[in-house]
Amino acid sequence: MNVVVTGATGFVGTPLVRALLAAGHAVTALSRDVARAARRLPARCHVVAWNPAGALDPATLRGADALVHLAGEGIAEARWTAARKSAIRDSRVNTSAAMVRALGQLDATERPRVLVSASAIGWYGDRGDTPLDEHSSPGTGFLADVCRDWERAVFDAQALGVRTVALRIGVVLGRDGGALQSLLPLFRLGLGGRVGSGQQWFSWIHLHDLVALLRYVLENQNATGPINGVAPEPVTNATFTAELGRAVHRPALFPVPAAVLRAVFGEMSAVLLASQRVQPRCAQQLGFVFRFPTLRSAIEELCADPSHELFVEQRLARRPEEVFPFFSDPGNLEKITPAFLRFKLLGTTTPQIGNGTLISYALRLHSIPLRWQSRIESWTPNRMFVDVQTRGPYTLWHHTHEFEPDDGGTLIRDRVRYRLPFGALGDVIAGWLVRRDLDAIFDFRRRRIEELMA
């Protein structure tokens, strides 16, 4: 399929794009920042400019088989001022309406066959202990109103003969993003606890299952209408915090009273305090199988490895046998490292890089002088190599470089697993800064490689 995706650089969108490409689909991402999207997304993903505040050129959708709409301002990222609430609503309702208008300007034979849009379980409002499925009535409140108008705009596509799905997504659990990005470091420090009374129902889904469900409803012709994107086992907030504490071997003894949340976050505290006991009836009836149906299975998988991941990909016009020798010369490391690191190669144990080579260098990071030594753990000429830190600022640095032939050129993939010193405390204090620095370093590296290999 040819799939057009909005929100492709987000927490859900990026792994969805990777999964679609890995399955052999062609993907076009619509983004307001083409350069940023091109850096973050796989090289095979085509990126097209679109300002969500404006109209969508129908030509962008012409010939596509499917449209996945995931774009929207973050709901829980800031206190809900009047301007913030307007941005939350407009980024969902207005963009959906713009897409349906663009679909309507295409001939029936040119339109995508299916539109899958994100929605949210906020549609149900705060419903206490009541079990909820896709046939339950809508709730009340700001988020319920936004979701109702959002879905109404999306389902206008049905009148155009487009199979339409609104995936009502719960709390998404995954590494390096979503709810766990801020919660896990606190729980690993023993500072976690229930929110409010802890009796409110918490409907969640593992990121892996959400991506799989998005692909499933794209491909399943029987999928239509609202579908709950949640795991089969909703739990109370108290159960969730207890499971998270158990998984990281820490007590969860620090509750956050509802009054404190309301004082700090105002109306936005409703996101944390609302009770929604949602079941994925339609997904199960369609035959979708969850890899992580229980909270314990999801939490254990997500907490098993405290390392972080970084994935960067770029395409060069040259073949792997022309590209790979550049990385065999230790001196080229300085050429692809940004000046702010003051990187200096100190020496290697072999003239050419290969299995077992030790590479030593010095650098400065935020004015702190550092020494780093890495070892080449694996070396397959023209295909891949792996370097691991043996001395340096990280407790883990495992960097895999892959060179894949691609239509006369080369796909270069960098996959990094890293852990900061001092465990969870390091994540709390410096995690955001390290992520920012790594983004800057690999962005520079990507540009320099393109310049040097032009």
Describe the protein's architecture and organization:
The chain is an alpha/beta fold and 454 residues long. It folds into two domains: 2-303, NAD(P)-binding Rossmann-like Domain (Rossmann fold), CATH 3.40.50.720; 308-452, Alpha-D-Glucose-1,6-Bisphosphate, Chain A, domain 4, CATH 3.30.530.20. The relative contact order is 0.10. The model has no long low-confidence stretch (mean pLDDT 93). Strand 18 and strand 19 form a beta hairpin. The chain starts with a strand and ends with a helix. It is built from 14 helices and 20 strands.
Itemize the secondary structure elements and their pairings:
Elements: E1 2-6, H1 13-22, E2 26-31, H2 34-40, E3 46-49, E4 66-69, H3 82-104, E5 114-120, E6 131-132, H4 142-155, E7 163-169, E8 171-174, H5 178-188, E9 201-202, E10 204-206, H6 207-219, E11 225-229, E12 235-236, H7 237-247, H8 258-265, H9 270-273, E13 277-278, H10 281-285, H11 295-303, E14 308-316, H12 320-328, H13 332-335, E15 344-348, E16 358-365, E17 368-380, E18 384-391, E19 396-406, E20 409-419, H14 423-452
Helix pairs in contact: 1-6, 3-4, 5-14, 7-11
What is shown here, in short?
The chain is of the alpha/beta class. It is 35% helix and 26% strand. The strands form five sheets. It has a seven-stranded parallel β-sheet with strand order 3-2-1-4-5-7-11, sandwiched between helices. Strands 14-20-19-18-17-16-15 form a seven-stranded antiparallel β-sheet, covered by helices on one side. Strands 6-13 form a two-stranded parallel ribbon.
